[in-house]
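[agent] plan:
  1. take the single chain provided in the ticket
  2. run structure prediction with default settings
  3. attach structure tokens to the ticket
  4. add a short note for the reviewer (M.T.)
[agent] executing step 1
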Amino acid sequence: MATEVTLQPLARYPLDAAILFSDILTVPDAMGLGLYFSQGEGPRFERPLRDEWEIRDLTAPDPTDKLGYVMDAVKSIRRALDGSVPLIGFSGSPYTLACYMVEGGSSDDYRHIKTMLYSRPDLLHRILEINTRAVIDYLNAQIEAGAQAVMIFDSWGGSLTPHAYKEFSLDYMERIVAGLIKERDGRRVPSIVFTKGGGNWLEAIAAIGADAVGLDWSTDIGQARLRVGSQVALQGNLDPNVLHGTPDIIRSEVGHILNAYGNHPGHVFNLGHGISQFTDPEKVSVLVDAVHSQSRAIRS
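[agent] step 2 finished; step 3 output follows
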């Protein structure tokens, strides 16, 4: 099923890469927290981490054992792609995973995780240490199975204060980047990091050693290019809600981003976050065609 769903967008749109279809919470699920899906609420855990003894007993899973089904999917997808486009693997960041693990699911106020952060930071650091080890192992296993690039999604890091972001999110992502396999079968394996709401910390994010930094739509990509220079590639950053607009608006918004970036190397056009389930597939066709045609015009 993962192979089929990963390939579906490529069958419909002329995309330049495939991204592994998997849930962001596979790693904590493999730790035994009891992942389930509740209608109207999204993913939740039966046993959120609230007690010290549960946190002390937490261990990183063996990705080739409890997450072997993901690696089987990576191998299957690579065979099906047959070299047509690269395959991107991914994981949630240690902090984003910890948010789900402590909150028990999505949250509007992050009350449980921030209570732990400000009252028992030692316990949160314990969770983050385990998650960091788990994510390194998980992404490296994906690379060994055939992923040709990997991405770390820090969807909730932007909810932190600047100093808390560095201590509880960025420092751990830096350790992950340092621990990743850098070359496989004679080819470099690029790494991408993305923090939703992380534009204020762009320079710090660019300095952790990843090859590319993802941007959400709240950051001007032209200014971002000036801020980081050629240190990293930039990925993004169309507001997903633009796809609910008219074709002319979509083309116009694509043009704003491409013109702001300019005729420089190192731009991977993408949405600034996940695509909405309510998006009209025909609007995606408009987007992809606009990116290709306008990119060619800028480079000609």
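[agent] step 4 note for reviewer: The chain has one domain: 2-214.
[agent] ticket updated
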